[in-house]
Fold Methyltransferase type 11.
Amino acid sequence: MTPTLAGQHLPRAGAAARVDRRARARDWAEIQERMLVPLYEAVYDRLGVGVGTRLLALGCGTGLALLLAASRGAAVTGVDSGADERLALARERLRSTARWPRARADSRIVDGSPRDAAPAPGERAYTLLTAFGPAGYAAGHDEHLAGQLAAAAPLARRGAPVVLAGWGPPERCSTVSLLRVATRPADHGGDAVRPRPAGRDDLEDTARRSGLRPDGSGRVACPFGYADLDSAVRGMLSTGLFDAAIDTTDPEQVGKELAEALHPHLRADGTVWMPNVFRYLIARVQ
């Protein structure tokens, strides 16, 4: 949901001024981001990520996907912009890999654009590009992502895989039911752009606009599970999907509405469980 899920969203200035960005980054890292681990692992297994992989992650956020790749022996570079708190957490995570047997000293986090993450003179081109922030839901995200991919593609070798991720069919994503909270500003005549469910061909369309060649896809179950209702609300707010609603009202009101929307997913033991399916596309640099 960046960043949309995975750390990639396009922050609204009004909302950014009304939330604790440090707390939100921590909530994303500690509560929400782990929900996408099945997606990261499925992609890395399919592509054989390990020693010899040079990975550039676009919109790396707090860096959990980078950490998992580094644990496999990959040399990882993450790039993001306007996410100081999240990048600080990503750097902290990568420092923790220094004692790992297969850790690479050339792993890094870059605050800026993909061009700022270009390989240094003498370094090999990237062998894998990833953009795990789901396409579709956040307004403007697909166009932003296409530009990021077009800028990153020249940094990778010809034929290198590029991974895009998105939500699966709405009927298989329980979290879709929460979008009514995010779209309320538009419902009441606000100027916020309405988030929309992901379209069937969003990933392919974004890849082609970026000059990439689609070359296979897959689906992965990524259920969202939370210890309690409070954790679920904090996790969902950390995605950035509800910034327009926060801008129109206030964080407390949006949190209250989210809690109400989450009640159908509340189990008898107090935990919250929402089954979801994510889809990923593998494209190729031409």
